[in-house]
Structures are given as C-alpha cells and as structure tokens.
Design goal:
Structural class: alpha+beta
Order of helices and strands: HHHHEEEEH
Shape: globular
Distance between the termini: 31 Å
Number of strands: 4
Strand order of the largest sheet: 1-2-3-4
Number of helices: 5
Helix content: 10-25%
Largest sheet: 4 strands, antiparallel
Strand content: 15-25%
Length: 226
C-alpha cells in the first residue's frame, strides 16, 4: 500500500448492506497476499512500516467542505459492522492511526468460570479473526508504543459454515499514550485503556486530534463495548 493511499474511509452502501459473512471468506481474503510467505524465512521481505504523521491525521481537513479522512474513519469505525470493506477500487482502505499490524485467526474459548455472560461465559467457543497492531509508527520492543488487539467473533466453530453469520466485535488496547512491553503477552489490553498523553512525545498533536474527533463521534471516547 502506498503511503499516500487512503482508500474508502467513509461509511458507504457496502457497510450499510452488511448482513453477515462467512469465516472462510474473511480468512481467505486476509491471507490472500501475505507480507511473507514463510514467517521470518530467509529472503523474505521485511514487514512494511507505515508512518503515522500529523499531515496524515489532518488529510482533507482543508479547504472547508472537503472530505476529512480521519473524521470519516472514526465515524465508520463506530457505525459499520462490515467484516470486509473492499471499496469501489477493490483495494480496501488505510488505517490512519494503527496502520502497522498483522491478522490472526483462531478459536475463542473461555475455559475458566467467570461472572460474565455472552462470549465471556464459561465454555463459550467461537471462531475469531483478530488484528494485532501498534500505535503509532513505532513497532519495536523497548520503545513507547500502544499495542492493540481487535477481533470479530463468529457464532460457530465450523470454519466452513455456509450461511452468512453476523459477528460480535471487540476493541482492546494498551495505554493510548503508549507503554513499554517487550512481549505481546506482557501487554495489558483493556476495552477502557488509560491515556498517558506525555508518553506520545512529538505525537501529542495527533493524540489531541484523536481525542477531539472521538469525543465528537462517541460519547465515551476511550471506552469500547464488549
């Protein structure tokens, strides 16, 4: 994906027409063009790293009346339930704040007794498609970064189910300002993360833009329902 490419950020008829999807279709789509055919193999290209910059966060804000990409993306993230978003050019779209990430698939299973219901109750099982990402440009351990795991849960354990199914979605993230963890398993991922703004350093202007747009679009800007 080219650095200047944003794709279809806004909510569209494609989002509105969503009536569920098949796990196999989503899995096949996200693994159709892998970054590396053999993870970490000899001769494989390095994983791409996309910069998160102030210009990208304000792209389209001027002149007045132009499509402001980031605002469109925030509104779409709240309103759209679509599992795949191809856009009219079939190229998808760019993640403005979390462009660096990888997708995973697996089985969601709750084995311990919990006080919760739904997908968090004991013995609940479901297929899951997840995305691990980092905000913002920094991806390396030992540096300030904010790891995130988001996912879609399919109400089945059959990866070849034929009927389209509606997914349940979750957003979890480390401190939005950033944190230091050497390993993914050490990260504390929450649906209501803290925000330690000073950890963003020179990225504070982008964080302020995030906060402004989140508060306009969502009444609970730092919380995500599970």
């Amino acid at each position: 994906m080219e650095p200047g490419f944003f794709g279809t950020e806004q909510f569209t008829e494609e989002d509105r027409a969503y009536r569920g999807s098949r796990f196999s279709e989503v899995r096949d789509a996200i693994f159709a063009n892998p970054y590396q055919k053999v993870w970490g193999g000899a001769g494989e290209p390095p994983l791409p790293i996309y910069d998160v910059t102030l210009p990208s966060a304000v792209r389209g804000i001027l002149p007045p009346g132009s499509p402001y990409f980031f605002r469109q993306a925030v509104a779409r993230a709240v309103d759209s339930h679509a599992d795949l978003r191809w856009g009219t050019d079939r190229k998808g779209f760019r993640r403005i704040i979390h462009p660096n990430g990888i997708c995973l698939t697996g089985l969601w299973e709750i084995s311990a007794q919990t006080p919760y219901s739904g997908y968090f109750r004991k013995d609940c099982r479901a297929l899951v498609v997840g995305r691990y990402s980092t905000c913002c440009t920094e991806t390396r351990r030992g540096y300030e970064r904010s790891l995130s795991l988001v996912g879609k849960l399919f109400p089945t354990t059959d990866p070849n189910h034929s009927e389209p199914l509606s997914t349940a979605n979750f957003f979890t993230q480390q401190d939005i300002g950033g944190d230091r963890t050497d390993y993914i398993n050490d990260a504390e991922l929450r649906n209501a993360p803290n925000t330690t703004s000073w950890r963003r350093g020179f990225g504070v202007p982008v964080l302020l833009i995030e906060a402004t747009l989140f508060m306009k679009i969502d009444r609970q800007p730092t919380q995500r329902q599970l």
